[in-house]
Amino acid sequence: MPRHKGAVRRVRLSEKRRIANKGQKVELRKLFKTFDATATTSGDQLQALQSKLDKLAAKGLVHKNYAANKKSQLARSINKAKVAA
Question: In this structure, are residues 21 and 13 in contact, taking their beta carbons and an 8 Å threshold?
Fold first, then answer.
């Protein structure tokens, strides 16, 4: 247990931030699971996912290269579905 007043505050703040960050990451995973490249609304889903990835990368919750790779994968999957249709 921390003994200093500042250390106690840091523990309290870091726990609040951990919970908030976890919620953001869970929301991102849900968006990934509901994404369907073959759906007619895939463009809207892609835009929402890319926006979420950009926001999380800007905050440092996910690495910027991870966000870039995921955005690229999603775009490729949509393009592949369009060609197949």
Answer: no
Report phi then psi at 37, rounded to 5. Answer: -65, -25
pLDDT of 18 above 90: yes
Given a contact cutoff of 8 angstroms between Cβ atoms, the answer to whether 82 and 43 are in contact is no
User: What is the token pair recorded at 1?
Assistant: 């247990």
- State phi, psi for 69 to the nearest 5 degrees: -65, -45
Residue 49: Cβ-neighbour burial (10 angstroms; 0-12, 13-18, 19+): buried
Q: How far apart are CA 70 and CA 49, in angstroms?
A: 9
Place of tokens 């994968």: 73
Domain ranges (residues) in the chain: 26-84
Residues 43-81 pLDDT 10s: 888 999 999 999 999 999 999 999 999 999 999 998 888
Q: Shortest CA distance to 50 belongs to which of 22, 23, 78?
A: 78
